[in-house]
Amino acid sequence: MSKNNTNPNNKSLSNSSLDITKGNNGGKNHLVKTFINGFFIILCASVAVPFISGLFASFRPGQMLIRNGLNLNLDFENWSLVNYSYLFDGSTGYLDWYKNSLIITIVSVILTLIICYFVAYGFAMYHFKFKNLLFFLVIATMMVPFEILMLPLYKQMISFGLIDTYAGVILPGLVHASTIFFFRQYLSGIPKELLDAGRIDGSSEYGICVRIVMPISKPAFSAMAILSSMGAWNSMLWPLIVLRSAEKFTLPIGLNTLLTPYGNNYDVLVAGSIFSILPLFILYLIFNKYFVEGMTAGAVKG
């Protein structure tokens, strides 16, 4: 008969070594988590502190702003709503700039989402000749700096008679390669059996695209709506080239006019900049439910 040669001391030594290993791994994991949390706390502070200091400065007189700069001092006795009242009393044209930016942003975002969705749907759902080559050419446009395209686009706007018009600002930026790429990646994760089921039920290709696929693409639309709105709302270079009339200036251009060789209205500039964040903040609150899902869903296919 064979004897069992297992030594109890060896078992206890192996268990002790496993406990030590687990303890070391746990310590390393805790250190990594602490480092990551600290990094993101610093990152959040680097974003929040300038915004909060700008918010505080928007309630202070311009003299204090020039003398003390942006800071986090809560000197409530010097706070007032004078900057905001001056902003909205009509003397600066701020409301007109705000209205122009809203019109341009809303129209450009809606048209951009619709056009880019249909283009991406074709690349994601259909197979046709030179499909990969055409998609590569679309993506390749992302490598072309806008500064190279400014002069040709400006000449086009002159030939079309769109200088100093909203259309001249909106049309050149309707189709973004990055938006097409994002929609294409998201739509590629939708099962093709869903389209086949729609065809069996007698739905047209347009009906499948609009009535079946578009509703389940709400996270992608939400994410792209936020990102496209940020680009259109903050755009300054192209509107500055196209627009000539002061009453058609967008918000970034209008705020820049407050800085002149004869005097700088920093107090009104800071107040106007803080208030200009409001539409994007509201938009994010509305679509926040779908934003993270839309940004991550297209990254995994299946």
Write the layout of secondary structure elements.
Layout: H1 8-57, H2 62-68, H3 82-88, H4 94-125, H5 131-140, H6 146-160, H7 166-170, H8 177-188, H9 193-200, H10 205-216, H11 218-234, H12 237-242, H13 251-256, E1 259-260, E2 263-264, H14 266-275, H15 278-297
Antiparallel strand pairs: 1-2
Helix pairs in contact: 1-14, 3-14, 4-8, 4-11, 8-11, 9-10, 11-15
Number of helices: 15
Cα-atom Rg, whole angstroms? 28 Å
Distance between the termini: 57 Å
* Helix-residue proportion: over 70%
The CATH class label of the largest domain is: Mainly Alpha
Low-confidence stretches: 298-302
- Whole-number average pLDDT? 84
The dominant shape is globular
Reading the helices and strands in chain order gives HHHHHHHHHHHHHEEHH
The CATH topology of the largest domain corresponds to: MetI-like fold
| CATH architecture field of the largest domain | Orthogonal Bundle
According to CATH, the homologous superfamily of the largest domain is MetI-like
Secondary-structure-based class equals mainly alpha
User: How are strands sequenced across the largest beta sheet?
Assistant: 1-2
User: Biggest sheet, open or closed, and with what strands and sense?
Assistant: 2 strands, antiparallel
How many DSSP E strands?
2
Provide the β-strand percentage band. under 5%
Q: Tell me the count of domains.
A: 2
Quick summary:
Keywords: Cell membrane, Membrane, Transmembrane, Transmembrane helix, Transport. Helices cover 72% and strands 1% of the residues.
What does this 3D model show about the protein?
By secondary structure, the chain is an all-alpha fold. It folds into two domains: 71 residues; 215 residues, MetI-like (MetI-like fold, Orthogonal Bundle), CATH 1.10.3720.10. It is 72% helix and 1% strand. The chain is built from 15 helices and two strands. A two-stranded antiparallel ribbon has the order 1-2. It is globular and about 70 Å long.
